[in-house]
Design goal:
With 425 residues, this protein is mainly α. It contains 18 helices and 6 strands. The longest helix has 22 residues. It starts with 13 loop residues before the first strand and ends in a 23-residue tail after the last helix.
Length: 425
């Protein structure tokens, strides 16, 4: 909307461009960008110099946006969110200690809590047969060497193609898609060890009517699951549901800000998660821990990492000064998993060895590595658990972002190239 001549309502309070910018917490140029996008109306000031803005309209935009853009001196883009709080080496889902939720409730129950603020005891997610069949066909067409990240991305795309209502962004429709997408992702993964699986069904006794952790287990290892090991996997899924605005979650919110459908939001998150500094970090910890178990000691393994200039994986987290509360919770549960005893001792030796020189504590990647090494899982198992779990968190953030002003996540670039005009090369 362009400037209009000063109409009636002469008695309505008006703001100058600078005043509007201060109220919105943005630069003056951004105020005019809001005008060009139709988010603000303006009128030419008396005498034709500058523009004025309706004060109440500006305040309403400030309330909707919940955003203060960086000032010329710098600053961070801040989002209002009611999902996760990280504070004093603890973290909370909607105000409830996340580690307590992980000990007392299953993944589906906590996902519902994150999405709706209601705890649904016994909640279970089920994949529609036609959606699961399409996802399995698409995943089955991939080369044999494809990793779980490749399979999950393809499964999301296939699931989206089967959902003609995916562009309905109402909360009810988004949640319906999420409740079917997450078990579809799990069911589309091949069973470990190459066991055959019937079209549209699940392998063995771990049927689709069980918890998501029970459905996921045979996709991670050919070893049978016992109750303590399943409890660790379920807790890991809960603990990884969300962790504030991690890189993949920011990507998911950017997609949701453009009103991408929930499947596209999850695809955006998966693309970022695959980075070695994010979801794939647990694979590095797995390989290190496996080597420590094979060599009978973590000391030479840590020494080798330091000698070659590599950081020791599974240690430290920028948001926690002490031990990652997610790792602490999983380590406690792993005490009851008999097959994890060796890797758990090796992980503690890694921490103790590095503590001689650096005050680093175990993080979630090291705890996932104890589970994957102890239970005969592949190195990428931790990344798979991470991706499946975080899908619910991306959906929770998408629900928040769909309620915000569209396309609000639009930082300005600071051009550093040659100044025009320049001749055409």
């Amino acid at each position: 909307m362009t400037d209009q001549p000063e109409p009636g309502r002469q008695d309505a309070p008006r703001l100058t461009t600078r005043e509007a910018a201060e109220l919105l917490g943005v630069k003056p140029e951004t105020v005019y960008a809001y005008v060009s996008r139709g988010q603000l109306s303006s009128v030419r000031a008396a005498g034709g110099r500058g523009s004025t803005f309706d004060a109440e309209e500006v305040r309403a935009l400030a309330r909707r946006s919940g955003r203060r853009e960086p000032s010329p001196a710098g600053g961070d883009l801040v989002f209002r969110t009611g999902i996760t709080l990280i504070e004093e080496d603890r973290y909370y889902f909607r105000g409830v200690d996340a580690t307590e939720l992980a000990r007392d409730h299953g993944y589906e129950e906590v996902a519902e809590w994150l999405w709706t603020g209601e705890l649904r005891p016994g909640a279970r997610f089920e994949a529609p047969p036609e959606t699961l069949a399409a996802a399995r066909r698409a995943v089955g067409a991939l080369p044999a060497h494809s990793g779980s990240a490749d399979r999950l991305r393809v499964a999301v795309t296939a699931a989206a193609a089967t959902d003609p209502l995916r562009f309905d962004l109402s909360p009810e429709a988004v949640l319906s898609s999420a409740r079917s997408l997450i078990p579809t992702l799990v069911g589309a993964l091949p069973v470990a060890g190459g066991a055959p699986e019937a079209e549209g069904g699940s392998s063995g006794s771990l049927g689709s009517s069980g918890s998501l952790a029970r459905q996921l287990w045979p996709r991670l290892t050919a070893r049978p699951a016992d109750a303590p090991a399943l409890a660790v996997l379920d807790a890991a899924l809960v603990l990884l549901i969300d962790h504030d605005l991690a890189a993949s979650t920011l990507a998911a919110r950017v997609a949701a800000s453009a009103h991408a459908h929930p499947y596209a939001v999850v695809s955006a998150g998966l693309g970022v998660l695959e980075g070695p500094l994010h979801g794939a970090a647990s694979g590095l910890a797995h390989r290190m821990l496996q080597e420590a178990v094979d060599r009978g000691s973590a000391v030479p393994v840590v020494a080798d990492h330091l000698r070659t200039g590599r950081r020791v994986p599974g240690l430290g987290h920028r948001l926690y000064r002490g031990e990652d509360p997610r790792a602490r919770t999983l380590f406690a549960l792993l005490e009851d998993v008999e097959q994890a005893a060796g890797p758990l001792a090796a992980a503690r030796e890694v921490v103790a060895t590095t503590a001689r020189h650096a005050p680093l504590h175990a993080n979630i990647d090291l705890a996932l590595a104890v589970l994957s090494v102890g239970c005969g899982m592949a190195a990428e198992a931790g990344e798979t658990v991470f991706a499946v779990a975080r899908t619910a968190g991306w959906i929770a953030h998408a629900l928040e972002e769909y309620g915000e002003r569209p396309l609000r996540i639009r930082p300005s670039g600071q051009y550093t190239g040659p100044r025009p005009p320049r001749p055409t090369p």
